[in-house]
Design a protein that fits this description.
Radius of gyration: 16 Å
Order of helices and strands: HEHEEHEEEEHEE
CATH architecture: 3-Layer(aba) Sandwich
Number of strands: 9
CATH topology: Rossmann fold
Shape: globular
Number of domains: 1
Distance between the termini: 38 Å
Largest sheet: 9 strands, mixed
CATH superfamily: Vaccinia Virus protein VP39
Bound molecules: S-adenosylmethionine
Length: 184
Amino acid sequence: MSPDSPELVPRPPHPLALALIERLRERSGALVLEVGAGSGRNTRALTAAGLVVSALPVKRSCAAALTTHALLHGTPASIASQLDAIADALEPGAPLFATFASVRDARYGRGETLEPHVYAVPDGDEAGVAHAYFNDECLRALLEPRFRIESMRETGVDDIAGTWAHQMQPLRGAVHWFVVGVRR
Ligand SMILES: C[S@@+](CC[C@H](N)C(=O)[O-])C[C@H]1O[C@@H](n2cnc3c(N)ncnc32)[C@H](O)[C@@H]1O
């Protein structure tokens, strides 16, 4: 099943989706930007909490943004341009809840090196797909121009990122950053 396929068994929302819902608990009807919704587990939880979810918002219209296990594909430059688009969509002071791949992930360094900290594995579900990994310093440098970082913690995500998205090679030792930032 691809990450975008409908779920046969409903999956629980991501912990960062639950954190976003808690953060906006006083703002029913607020607009939330979601990037890389996949099968929609987070979209459903946000909507059920009374929030309005959009993938294509107008400038400065969103009260928060959520992106889980999507901004790991690409290069630091392509991820930076995604973060620019997200920042443009957010009200000043609005929170971003996001994950990024960590250099402590077991897949770091595997496959072809496309540029420093960017690799593409030759086989499996994600053959040939560029993955960008960040250490603390590089992730702060990526985020700081657009967001004030509230929290950044590395988390083992084998059971969170989605076994459904890695059916040929289940995740083992996947470590991602969980970030909360506030748009400057
Ligand atoms: C592993 S799934 C995660 C889906 C969902 N966020 C979740 O946590 O269940 C990755 C999703 O991100 C999308 N995606 C991958 N790279 C992306 C990128 N650079 N920008 C936006 N979406 C991306 C994929 O199409 C897919 O929907």
